[in-house]
TrEMBL record:
Recorded GO MF terms: hydrolase activity, acting on ester bonds; nuclease activity
Top EC group: hydrolase
Organism taxonomic ancestry: Bacteria, Pseudomonadati, Pseudomonadota, Betaproteobacteria, Burkholderiales
Predominant subcellular localization, coarse grouping: cytoplasm
UniProt-listed SUPFAM superfamilies: Ribonuclease H-like
CDD domains to which the protein is assigned, alphabetical: YqgF
Top-rank lineage group of the source organism: Bacteria
Protein's name in the database: Putative pre-16S rRNA nuclease
Every YqgF/RNase H-like domain range: 14-114
UniProt keyword list: Cytoplasm, Hydrolase, Nuclease, Ribosome biogenesis
InterPro entries given in the database record: RNaseH-like_sf, YqgF, YqgF/RNaseH-like_dom, YqgF/RNaseH-like_dom_sf
C-alpha cells in the first residue's frame, strides 16, 4: 500500500491538468469532474526544471485548471523509490510556482497499462490513466 493520503477535493474544483512526471518527458492530460474523463495533451519534452516549468506554465495558462494532479510511482509492493521522491518534489514545485492545489495519485502500472493499450504516446496516455483514476475516486 502506498503512503499517499486520500485526496480531499473541494466540490468547486472542476477542471484538472494531470502530469506523469519524467526526467526527459512529462505526460500531460486534461479532464473535468463532470464527465470524469481525461484527454491526452502533447507530452512535454524538456530536460531541466526551467525548460519543463516554462512548458508547464504554458499549459496552465491555456487550460486554466482549478487544480493539478500528479502521478507518484511506487514499487509493486508500495515501497517508495528514487522516482517517488522526484515526483513528490515536482508536486511541491508545482504548488509553489503556480499556487494551485496539487493532488497526488499512486501511479503504479500506469505506463504498463498505457503500453498494453497500444498508446502511441505512452506518457500522455499514462497521464490520462492517472487523471481518470483520480476522477473516479471523487464523490
Amino acid at each position: 500500500m502506498s503512503g499517499l493520503p486520500i485526496p480531499v477535493v473541494p466540490p468547486g474544483q472542476m477542471s484538472f491538468l494531470a502530469f506523469d512526471f519524467g526526467a526527459k518527458r512529462t505526460g500531460v492530460a486534461s479532464g473535468n469532474r463532470i464527465t470524469r474523463t481525461a484527454t491526452p495533451q502533447a507530452t512535454i519534452k524538456a530536460e531541466g526544471a526551467d525548460a519543463r516549468f516554462a512548458q508547464v506554465a504554458e499549459r496552465i495558462k491555456e487550460w486554466q485548471p482549478d487544480a493539478l494532479v500528479i502521478g507518484v510511482p511506487f514499487h509493486p509492493d508500495g515501497a517508495a523509490h528514487e522516482n517517488t521522491a522526484r515526483a513528490l518534489k515536482f508536486g511541491r514545485q508545482l504548488r509553489g510556482r503556480f499556487n494551485l492545489p496539487v493532488h497526488e495519485v499512486d501511479e503504479r502500472y500506469s505506463t504498463t497499462e498505457a503500453h498494453s493499450l497500444g498508446a502511441k504516446d505512452a506518457d500522455a496516455a499514462s497521464a490520462c490513466i492517472i487523471l481518470e483514476q483520480f476522477l473516479r475516486s471523487l464523490p
